[in-house]
Amino acid sequence: MYKQISLRLPKNLEEAARKYAKIYGFRNIQELIAEALREKIFFKEEYDEDFTEKEIELIDELIEKSIKAKKLGTEKQLMKALQ
Questions:
Q1: Contact 74, 67 (CB under 8 A)
Q2: Angle at 47 between CA 16 and CA 27, to 5 degrees
Q3: Backbone region of residue 25 per phi and psi (left: phi > 0; alpha: psi in -120 to 50; beta: other values)
Q4: CA 35 to chain centre
Q5: Nearest to 16 by CA among 31, 29, 34
Q6: Closest CA to 36 of 12, 10, 11, 13
Q7: How far apart are CA 39 and CA 41, in angstroms?
Q8: Model confidence over 5-39: pLDDT tens digits?
Q9: Helix spans in 1-83 (H)
Q10: By CB distance 3.0 to 4.6 Å, which of 1, 31, 73, 83 could disulfide with 77?
């Protein structure tokens, strides 16, 4: 059984939610909001440890370029800084 609710969002948040929904494959903003509520209510982690394939690629690229530019040092130093 479903219950319909009304939700007001500031314009910038609504626009960002629509963009996010489109990028990450949600059918619409309603589906995104329902998923966000499920995660918040049923999965009480402090932060989301799941990354999309694209996010992982971007992180890897950032790490590689930073190491090559000698901006971070070694992978070991990076891991130590992230802990």
A1: yes
A2: 40
A3: left
A4: 13
A5: 29
A6: 13
A7: 6
A8: 898 989 999 999 999 999 999 999 999 999 998 88
A9: 11-23, 29-42, 53-68, 75-82
A10: 73
Gap between the Cα atoms of 39 and 24, Å rounded: 15
Report long-range pairs for 4-10 (Cβ below 8 Å, ≥24 apart): 7/33
Specify the residue for token string 């890897």.
60
Give CA angle at 27 (48, 35), nearest 5°. Answer: 35
| CB of 38 closer than 8 Å to CB of 29 | no
